[in-house]
Amino acid sequence: MTTTDHTSALRSVGLRVTAPRLATLAAVEAHPHSDAEAIAQAVRENLGTVSRQAVYDVLNALSDAELLRRVSVGGRSMRYEMHRHDNHHHLVCRSCGRLEDVPCAVGAAPCLIPHEDHGFSIEMADVVYRGTCSDCREREAATP
Ligand SMILES: [Zn+2]
Ligand SMILES: [Zn+2]
Ligand SMILES: [Zn+2]
């Protein structure tokens, strides 16, 4: 996407077009699955004088507007990607934190139906597959 696309994406969800918002969208697009810290760093390299808190606020606003998708990988770590509204899931390496997209195994939300729904109307299941990536397995195999 270009800056023009990002501008119209912001307008389409009723958000004002600002330099920090554009820089955040560009940073996430260039480095998908980054955490807030890495995105804040990229935005500051681009714009100079943006506080970390300002970038965190932008990430929240863009996520709430569903321009960005938050990916929870467990613990305190939250990663961000462009929201494609495609219901894909994620593979996470326990060892190095590598995160990869995988298509939904079922094809349609909510993917998993719980045995007890407590009266909820279930919209989605957020699936995270956890394991060890091939690089880490090789590294482990190579360590005596
Ligand atoms: Zn790994
Ligand atoms: Zn993803
Ligand atoms: Zn699924």
From TrEMBL:
<keyword id="KW-0963">Cytoplasm</keyword>
<dbReference type="GO" id="GO:0000976">
    <property type="term" value="F:transcription cis-regulatory region binding"/>
</dbReference>
<dbReference type="GO" id="GO:0003700">
    <property type="term" value="F:DNA-binding transcription factor activity"/>
</dbReference>
<protein>
    <submittedName>
        <fullName>Transcriptional repressor</fullName>
    </submittedName>
</protein>
<dbReference type="GO" id="GO:1900376">
    <property type="term" value="P:regulation of secondary metabolite biosynthetic process"/>
</dbReference>
<dbReference type="GO" id="GO:0045892">
    <property type="term" value="P:negative regulation of DNA-templated transcription"/>
</dbReference>
<keyword id="KW-0678">Repressor</keyword>
<keyword id="KW-0408">Iron</keyword>
<feature type="binding site">
    <location>
        <position position="96"/>
    </location>
    <ligand>
        <name>Zn(2+)</name>
    </ligand>
</feature>
<keyword id="KW-0804">Transcription</keyword>
<feature type="binding site">
    <location>
        <position position="133"/>
    </location>
    <ligand>
        <name>Zn(2+)</name>
    </ligand>
</feature>
<keyword id="KW-0479">Metal-binding</keyword>
<keyword id="KW-0862">Zinc</keyword>
<feature type="binding site">
    <location>
        <position position="136"/>
    </location>
    <ligand>
        <name>Zn(2+)</name>
    </ligand>
</feature>
<comment type="similarity">
    <text>Belongs to the Fur family.</text>
</comment>
<dbReference type="GO" id="GO:0008270">
    <property type="term" value="F:zinc ion binding"/>
</dbReference>
<dbReference type="InterPro" id="IPR036388">
    <property type="entry name" value="WH-like_DNA-bd_sf"/>
</dbReference>
<feature type="binding site">
    <location>
        <position position="93"/>
    </location>
    <ligand>
        <name>Zn(2+)</name>
    </ligand>
</feature>
<dbReference type="Pfam" id="PF01475">
    <property type="entry name" value="FUR"/>
</dbReference>
<keyword id="KW-0805">Transcription regulation</keyword>
<keyword id="KW-0238">DNA-binding</keyword>
<dbReference type="InterPro" id="IPR002481">
    <property type="entry name" value="FUR"/>
</dbReference>
<dbReference type="GO" id="GO:0005737">
    <property type="term" value="C:cytoplasm"/>
</dbReference>
<dbReference type="InterPro" id="IPR043135">
    <property type="entry name" value="Fur_C"/>
</dbReference>
<dbReference type="InterPro" id="IPR036390">
    <property type="entry name" value="WH_DNA-bd_sf"/>
</dbReference>
